[in-house]
Amino acid sequence: MDHAPQYRRFLTWLIGSFVAICSLAAGINYVIDPYGLFGTARIDGLNARKPAAGERVRTTKPYMATALGPMTVIAGNSRPELGLDPQSPCWQEDDQPVFNTGIPGASFYMQTQYAKHALSAGRGKKVLLGVDFLDFLIDTSTQSSMPPTDWASLATSYAGRLDIPNESAGAWQEISTQAQDKLSALFSLNTLADSLFTTVQQRAPFTTDRRADGFNPGHDYEAIIRSEGQYVLFQQKNAELIARLSRPGLGLFIAGRAHSESLEALRNFLAWAQREDVEVSLFINPYHLDYLRTIQAAGLWPAFDDWKRHITRIANEFGTPLWDFNSVDAYSSETPPGRGERGASIHWYWEPAHYKREMGELMLAKLLGRNCATEDLMSSPGTRLSAEGLEQHLARLRSGWPDPQASPAR
User: Fold this and answer.
1) What does the alpha-carbon distance between residue 291 and residue 244 come to, in Å, rounded to a whole number?
2) Where are the transmembrane segments (predicted)?
3) Residue/partner pairs of 252-257 with CB below 8 Å, 24 or more apart
4) DSSP state, 283?
5) Are residues 321 and 282 in contact, defined by beta-carbon separation less than 8 angstroms?
């Protein structure tokens, strides 16, 4: 008996079923778009919130920026990602659309490359770039004979996602990286699980999210505050900062060299912006007093001051405005709720390292020079740094401590 026809029918059925299942999974993943990679329409109750996107921002934000085509870009690490809102009333019509390309945990060079991509995607002409002390600290005990920085090798893991004129990766790398990103997002079982998770979480009151404009609204912080209290956020972040800043050998420069990869990346970015006629506003992220105390307790305050001197010098080279939002005042010294106080929260900060949108509104008013904040801007944090007034500014911060011996909340 000839079984060949049966085998062929079975094989046809098997292949057809496999293709149908894969197509169905791909269709679900595309429609739900759990990471925001495809720019599929966000529908309330179905896929408007992206709770799984937070773990994929390094992959998805370049595609989100390309889809939006921003005129203005907010750049930096997780601090501006949480604090500077592209939907702020401070923005004017000619600023929009605004995209927040802040990348948590990224090197400063990576932050600038993502900013370049986002600006190029929309032919943007304005960027607010946050500079953060921790992103410039290195292990100064590293051998002083290190070769010059190989910028291309630093960008190997993400260059294929970025489209920067005269800097883009080779065509094959772009095709390969982008195909891998999109195919894995369409046909992965992990993506399918995240799609189902996305739909289930739409009605949850504090679902974490990344909006289509790149902003992190901080819903995951709100959830912790309501379930465990803001005290827990302060305790965890203070312990993390103490451990990180207490490591021996931290400083700005490798022993025997006056060179810094991050400072050079800043200079390179400002030179690029000048060539591309992009308006840059630099700002130093604000910290809660607990964070400043940790810097002081770790013996890093002189490096903190020296870092600001270097940043100011570079900004002056390019005629770029630089704002310092660090302060020792009522804004930075709010006392967080005590242990067991659930639901209560201070006004300006999520925890010592990350400021809220409310602080971001004050920052935008000064950065943009607009009367768009409800607070008195004369008394709110934010000092524009200059070579002439820098030392007086640094001295004011050093002398403004209410209790120099106090320790961060534990």
Assistant:
1) 12
2) 12-32
3) 252/136, 252/137, 252/138, 252/140, 252/303, 252/306, 252/307, 252/310, 253/138, 253/140, 254/138, 254/140, 254/142, 254/143, 254/144, 254/146, 255/140, 255/141, 255/142, 255/144, 256/144, 257/144, 257/146
4) E
5) yes
Alpha carbons 26 and 186: distance in angstroms, whole number: 5
What is the Rg, in whole angstroms, of the alpha carbon atoms belonging to the chain?
24
Give, as one character, the DSSP assignment of residue 27.
H
- Cβ-based neighbour number of residue 392 at 10 Å: 9
| pLDDT tens-place string over residues 295-344 | 999 999 999 999 999 999 999 999 999 999 999 999 999 999 999 899 99
d(CA 238, CA 84): 23
- At residue 21, what are phi and psi to the nearest 5 degrees? -65, -45
Q: Could you count the other beta carbons within 10 Å of the beta carbon of residue 409?
A: 18
Residue 150, sorted as left (phi over 0), alpha (psi -120 to 50) or beta, turns out to be: beta
Smallest CA-to-CA distance from 360 within 128, 154, 163, 145 is with 128
Tens of pLDDT along 177-235? Answer: 999 999 999 998 899 999 999 999 998 888 889 999 999 999 999 999 999 999 999 99
Token representation of residue 361: 């509104």
- Domain boundaries in the chain? 69-170+199-399
The pair of three-digit structure tokens given for residue 213, joined into one six-digit string:
């404009």
